[in-house]
Amino acid sequence: MPSPFPGMDPYLEDPAIRPDFHHQFAGEISAILNGILPARYYAQTEMRTEVGIVGDDGYERRIIPDVTIQRRPSSMAPAATAVLAEPRQERSASILFGVPDEPLRHHNVEIRDAARGHALVTLLGIVSPSNKRPGPDRKAYLAKQREVLESDAGLVEIDLLASGETVVGVPSLVEPLERANERKRYLVTVSRAWKRHPEAEYEAFSFGLDEPLPCIGIPLREGETETLLDLQYAFNHTYDRGPYRRGAVDYDDPPEAPLTDDERQWVRERVGAAFPSRQENPS
Description:
Distance between the termini: 31 Å
Strand content: 15-25%
Helix content: 25-40%
Strand order of the largest sheet: 1-7-8-9-10-11
Largest sheet: 6 strands, mixed
Oligomer: single chain
């Protein structure tokens, strides 16, 4: 079942569904690349635990906001005043929070060279919401980004999130895009290892809510023909095979993504056309 939108679906920024989309999209990209990469190369999904709270066992965890609440009543009647002659001997009323503590996995895509000891050739990073918020996961993302940029591997960064602060490329990349009036809602950047010195060159694809995801060249080794990856094709397959139009996404309410008034109106029209039975009958 196709998405109601020609490009990115803003409803997929919902925290309840975003991790599933991130995982499925990375898997789809990996599968597509394995069908088109030259024989010596292969793609695989890379999983890492999202940086968050570190437990006593040293294992990094993120608290998932799936909270159950239970009220514990007090056995005392409410006091008329706060004056107490003696210390109280009964526990006050409280609220018990049940918070599952479990790892949250990020999925990115690695291209490796089987003929060179499985060396990393290119990393495709898919930006998550926590990467764009201040905190340890943003720091971890930027550290990984710097590690790749200082290596001989290529770096492709895919930001399909309208919210948060840009992390792809380098901070100075946003300014020329804005000057050229090319800074749109979403951004994909490509950094080729052999084009980083003496000046780093980035290829940027900036696109809006009403535009398809780009078709990009995936760098391998210098002098080799790049592999073309159609991100819209990957998105369409991810969406078609996923749960998003089967009830997992609530298209009745506005998306959580920060949109302009014009964009919200456009979204309503697209959803109305995709789900005509949900449109209100004229009175």
